Every structure is written in C-alpha cells, then in structure tokens.
Amino acid sequence: MDIEQFRKAGYQAINRICDYYYSLEEKPVASQVQPGYLIQALPDSAPEQGEDFQTIADDYQKLIIPGLTHWQHPSFFAFFPTACTFEGILADLYSTSATNPGFNWASSPACTELEAVMMDWAAKMFGLQENFLNSSGIGGGVIQTSASDSALVAVVAARSRYTKRHPSVKHEDLVIYVTTQTHSLGVKAGLVLGLECRSLEVKTEDDFALRGETLEQAIKEDQQRGKHPFIMIATVGTTSSGAVDRLDEIGQVVSRYPDIWVHVDAAWAGVTLACPELRELAQLANINQYADSFCTNFHKWGLVNFDASSLWVKNRKQLNDALDITPEFLRSKHGDAGTVIDYRNWHLGLGRRFRSLKLWFVLRSYGVTGFQNYIRKSIELNQYFASLVQGSPNFELVTKPSFALSVFRIKPQDQSASVEAANDLNRTFYARLSARPDILLTQTMINGVFCVRFAVGAARTTRAHIDSAWDIIQQEASSALQDTA
Fold first, then answer.
1. Pairing verdict, β 309-313 and 140-144
2. Helices (H) and strands (E) in the chain — how many of each?
3. Most-buried pick from 52, 93, 258, 405 (CB within 10 A)?
C-alpha cells in the first residue's frame, strides 16, 4: 500500500466507523455468533500472495463486526464501561502513524514528556497531592496497560522496599493482603511472583469494606506464624459491589507497621475524584495521606480508549530501584545525568506505546468541566435506576448504590425462602436476561448471595435507555417468577 492508497483506504475506514456509530443502537449488544465461527470462516494459513486491500476491509465488515460485543452500546450495563471517544480513536491513529518503542526519553522525547505532563494534568484534576506529580521530582505518574499491571508493578516495588529493609526475610514468608471483594489482580500478582496472597474477609454490615481491625488482626496472626505482610491492596470501588475500603482505618493501622506498602486500586471509581463533591466518598484525603501508590483506569470510565491505566507513586526512587536495569545500549547522556524520565524503569516491559496522546486529545477536547459532566451524568442515571428498584415490590438492592453501579436481585415472594432458593430464582432471572440481544448485564456473588450488576457508563446512554432496560428487567423477572412458581 502506498501513500495514496492509504489515503483512500483511510477515508473509507473513517466513513465506515462513522456508519458503525450511527447504526450502533440497532445492533445486538452482545455478539450472537457461536464459538468457532471465525475459525471456520478463515483459511488455516496465510495467503501466499498479497490480497487486494478492499477485500480485506470488506472482510472486516463481514467477518469481524458480527463477532464483536458492543461495549459502547447505550444498553451495555455489564462489567464496567470501556471508554471509546472519537478523540481517542484519532489519537491512536496518530500515535501508530509514527510508531516507536518509547523505552527512554531519547527514543522519542515527545512521548516521554507528554506522558509526564499528562499524568500531572490528571493528578491535579483528581486533587492528588504534590508529591504524586512528576514535576515534584519525588513521585510521579506513568501509564500502564491495565490495573492488573499497575498492581503487579506496585507489588514488585513494595517487595523490593521491604526486602531492602529486611534482607534476612525469605521470599516464601512474604504476604500480599487483599480482601474477598478485591479484583483478581492481587491474587494474580501473587501467582506471577510466587508469593502468598491472603484475602481478608469483609462483612455485609460494613458495606463490604475492609475495616482496620480486620487488617490489624491479620497482621498480628501472620507475624505470629513467622510471615511478613508487605503490601495492602485496598480498593475504591470493588468490581462486585462498588465497595470502598476504609482507607482511614487502614492507614492508621499501617502507620504502626510502616514497612507495609498501601496500594489503592481505584481502576473504575478513581475518575470520580475529578468531581469535588465526590472526593470525600472516594477517599481523596486518605489516598493523599496514606497511599504509597494509586491507580485508576481512564480506559474504563474516563473517556480514553483502551489501554490507559494511570499509576502514581509517592516515591519514584522506590519504583526505579525495583525495576531499573540499564545495559550499555540503553544508556544515554540525559538518562545518566538524571535530567529526564526513562519510563522503561517504571513498568515491567521495555517498549511502550504512545498512550499519552489519547489523554492529551481527550482532556483538551472535553476539558475538566466536560469530563466532570460525563461522570455526573452516569451517576445520575444510576441513581434513577436505583430509585426504580427501590420503588418496586419485586426487587431489592443487595448493596447501596455505588457511584454508577447498582447491585440488585428479585426479592423472594416467600420471606421464609432459603438463600439457595432465592439464588436459584435469581439465576433463572439472569439466564433470561443474558439470553436477550438487546441488553447486557453481569452476574456476581456477594457473600453467598447471587445478584445482578447494573453499571452505567456508556457515553451514549440516556434516561430513555434506563427506562427501556427497566421494562426488560421487569418482563424477565415476571417470567422467572412464573418459571419457578
């Protein structure tokens, strides 16, 4: 493909993307294909001779789009939202047009410097304190692939700090703390690093938030058995219930055990810090006071296309000490002098994509006010949905609404029904919902209770889509009640 052929194909691609979004609401939310559909449709080896690009582009329309679940669909209420804006699409196009590995400042100065500035923009928008800023020279921010990568990097840094302070401690005696509501990222970090990961119990009466007394009891128990807890992964907005761990109590406990690193995973809900009225609920003051590292994903509820997970640390030296490997071929004058950031020492890989361009385009196009309005709109729509649930005799909220997430279930008609019977009823209800093409929600289990999650965040969702979803939910609930009568 030469430049003019690329120009022609690019015009067509943009037109087709626009047509896709014009027709998005008419499509089924989830893909309706069966497993193996694409394996059967594609040849089993690459073509010997190159094909005409028009044929390739047409095959994307014919073969790939039917196999997509449309996460930007206004009736997508599953998992958490995945951001996609036209600004982000264009930024990805620009960034891949001059691709480079971005492993140090010299490889492309604009990539490093824009990322440093964008992470400071975001930190200021969220109200993070000064030592989280790159401009402070003390801590700073970096864009990772996902919150799982951010957590893994934090665990590596925390382990390095702990073992430097306690060189006689054996690797197998180190312990990671998470809760029973924490995302699987904590357990996976333990699996990758060969470390024990202990899940601390959270209670319904505490809104599934980790309390300080539970943490302190675990620390004492582990110390008595010769173990060394070295990191606590706390959460602002858990996946199942949107729970917010009590960072005030956690911080007070950890202040008595200063070698324990506190990582705050706010992959979904961290972007709410952009709204001043939500900062108390999202624990900003405690993040600033107690967190050694903090993560939120712009690619979830933050209008920036995947991947864009932002990680901030209060002390960049502790991160760099854990990850700095500089062979001779990566040395540079500015890197050796310490006058620039070399982001390869802030994550596990060497090369990295030019992701900050997406953040730059989005924040400039929306502005802080536009970003805040989007967050507030999602929360208002969820509050409206929660009010419908609360006003119905057939449903109940399992947890308090959290930001833009509601967790609910059908209320058993027989108040003496067992937990198992209520769970079976709601499994039948969810099975009916998930069989529909016009809506998508996800299930979860919270302390033995089967329930359904309703997460608002798709940029095109309106109150009319909430009303439509509620009608569908009531229809399927009636059928489920009849099926189990």
1. antiparallel
2. 16, 11
3. 405
Per-residue pLDDT tens for 28-48?
Answer: 999 999 999 999 999 999 999
Could you please report the per-residue DSSP string of 173-225?
Answer: GEEEEEETTS-THHHHHHHHHT-EEEEEP--GGGTTPPPHHHHHHHHHHHHHT
- The residue with greater pLDDT, 333 or 443, is 443
- Contact between 269 and 402 under an 8 Å Cβ cutoff? The reply is yes
Q: Decide if 29 contacts 439 (C-beta within 8 A).
A: yes
pLDDT at residue 106, rounded to an integer: 82
Question: From CA 234, how far away is CA 245, in angstroms rounded?
Answer: 6
Question: What is d(CA 455, CA 385) in angstroms, rounded to the nearest whole number?
Answer: 10
pLDDT of residue 334: 67
The alpha helices in 23-108, defined as continuous H runs, are 37-41, 53-59, 86-97
Residue-level pLDDT at 329:
67
Q: Is the peptide bond before 483 cis (omega within 30 degrees of 0)?
A: no
Lowest mean pLDDT among 314-323, 340-349, 393-402, 453-462: 340-349
CA angle, 91 as apex, 85 and 92 as ends, to 5°? Answer: 95
DSSP string, 372-418: HHHHHHHHHHHHHHHHHHHT-TTEEESS--BTTEEEEEEPPSSTT--
